Amino acid sequence: MEQTTAATSPSARPALVEMRDISIAFGGIHAVERASIELHEGEVIGLVGHNGAGKSTLVKILSGAYRRDFGSIRIRGETAAIDNPRDAKRYGIETIYQTLALADNVDTAANLFLGRELLTNWGTLDDIAMEAQAREVMGRLNPGFRRFKDPVKALSGGQRQSVAIARAILFDARILIMDEPTAALGPQEAAQVGELIRQLQASGIGIFLISHDIHDVFDLADRICVMKNGRIVGTARVADITQEEVLGMIILGKCPPAAVPGPGAIDR
Predict the structure, then answer these.
(1) CB burial class (10 A; 0-12, 13-18, 19+) of residue 28?
(2) Among 35, 41, 51, 238, whose CB has the most other CB atoms within 10 angstroms?
(3) What pTM does this model have?
(4) What is the DSSP pairing of strand 231-237 with strand 15-26?
């Protein structure tokens, strides 16, 4: 059976991302093989699997960090040429890695505009304009945020995550890749990040959510995609599948009836 996500996708909405038959190998080892996945507007897809399953490699191809050996990518129905991170940004794709990649010693506005600084007519940094925009975007994401002048190393984990998200959406990202966004956060901060994700989803942003936490995925995702040994085992709506079935997909590669099987399913 050829893999497709049509049976489980919100087909009334145009696909933001279509990745078809994506493959990449490193030193003869297939890190990702024949992976196909779609992401729609306002949708969260949870990508799960053991370490080395291929989920991070798959989204790094979308983010331009890796160049695929085979397969195609379409953004909003048109073929996308993504060979590096700059290409990905042009298509509205932003990535928030687990490490956040924030500059710890500078404040929120400086982090939001890092590498994209605004300049005055005299060629100097326009700190006033950058802080004004930082306050506007943070006010939408986290209205209670007040520590604009503090270096981000002084912020809590949840506040740092909100700064990283704000940096991604400030430049009109429509496709967001989030790598373990609640890792190392306490319950209250994890709940805050979950609320941020729901806000992004409500605004029409499509999100790939990479997580080892099955509870997170079931709380936040619309669909779940399981990878094993570089291949997609199956994709299903979270509402149609149990956590036990997902664990069976992760560990055994066994695809339950409610999931659309991929090339990695043992019982296709």
Answers:
(1) exposed
(2) 35
(3) 0.86
(4) unpaired
Give 193's pLDDT tier (boundaries 50, 70, 90).
Answer: confident
Closest CA to 220 of 183, 189, 193, 244: 193
Q: Residue 197, class by beta-carbon neighbours within 10 Å (0-12 exposed, 13-18 middle, 19+ buried)?
A: buried
* Tokens of residue 225, six digits: 């995609």
- Contact between 138 and 158 under an 8 Å Cβ cutoff? The reply is no
Question: Would you state the pLDDT for residue 2?
Answer: 37
C-beta separation of 147 from 158 below 8 A: no
Listed range (190-204, 221-235, 241-255) with the worst mean pLDDT = 190-204
The residue behind tokens 């704000």 is 166
Q: Residue 217 has which token pair?
A: 């995925």
Which token pair is 112? 């939001």
Tallying the residues shown for the chain, one arrives at 268
pLDDT tens-place string over residues 142-172: 888 888 999 999 998 888 888 888 888 887 8
φ, ψ dihedrals at 97, nearest 5°: -80, 160
| Share of residues in the chain with pLDDT > 90 (%) | 60
Radius of gyration, alpha carbons of the chain: 19
Distances (CA, A) of 48 to 45, 94, 113, 155, 187: 10, 19, 31, 29, 21
DSSP code at position 69:
S
Average pLDDT over residues 200-218: 91
